[in-house]
User: What shape does this take?
Amino acid sequence: MIYLWAFIIGGAICVIGQLMFDVAKLTPAHTMATLVVVGAVVDGLGWYEPLIDFAGAGATVPITSFGNALVHGAITELHRDGWIGVITGIFDVTSAGISAAIIFSFLAALVAKPKG
Assistant: This one.
């Protein structure tokens, strides 16, 4: 059943993004930024963790999860280290994913011929 809910929730997030493209005529940058901010706000309200528990990868794979990770890391480190943790927590939680994206993009550029 978890696969069905992951599909439904992840698909619903993607449908919202697609509607932002098609109906609201937002650019990809505006759409991504909006979805990241929505994920951050939802996590700030404490609603994203229950969504992850319910939908699994359906909530952790879309771009809203990046906003969740930023806020979740900042809040966790705020409680542990004080106000300096707001800054360090953002980097602590997201650094592995961002580093992987940079490394794999570089490796793909070495193998594939980029179009310029």
About this structure: The chain has one domain: 2-111. Helices lie at 2-22, 28-44, 48-55, 57-60, 64-81, 84-111. Residues 2-111 form one domain.
